[in-house]
Here is the input.
Amino acid sequence: MKKRAVFLDRDGTLIVDKNYLSDPAGVVLFDRTIESLIRMMQLGLSLVVVSNQSGVGRGYFSMKDVDAVNSRIDSLLRQDGIEIAGWYVCPHAPDEKCSCRKPKPGMIEAASQDLGLDPSRSYVIGDKRADVDLALAVGACGILVTTGYGANDTEYARSIGAPVCADLLAASELIALDKSQLNPEFCSIKTSPIRRA
Here is the structure.
């Protein structure tokens, strides 16, 4: 059986959004990121980062810079035993016709093939409309967090029934309630009444 996963946005979800971060020294984890990811791992979920990095396509920085930032985050997480199964990045600008820029499904499709994951039994967590729309695109359960830019998209998320959580820890607690491992009635995008702000 393919594995369940949490597909995580990076900026504004795992780390403080610094607006086109290109310097590893600028990485700041949210206070409860470590606790949240440990909880998700304890639930048997693979952790995968899926991140739009249009700063590359816009010419603000290079993929080498993106990799350096991701390596810094990975190093910080590994100090607490957290393993990210895969890092997937869309480097394209919004006007480029790619298949990977969220909410398009390319990154999750690639991760699912590479890592043996089942998106339909998985979660997407992020701070933007594109993240919950990505969940819709792959049949996953989308959860909006209000860290980062999330407060701007709470009305939209609620309009499609996506859970809204204060932060990643609240999202992990919500996932822990899903005893049925993604019963369609749990996932609000699939008509669940569960919402948390």
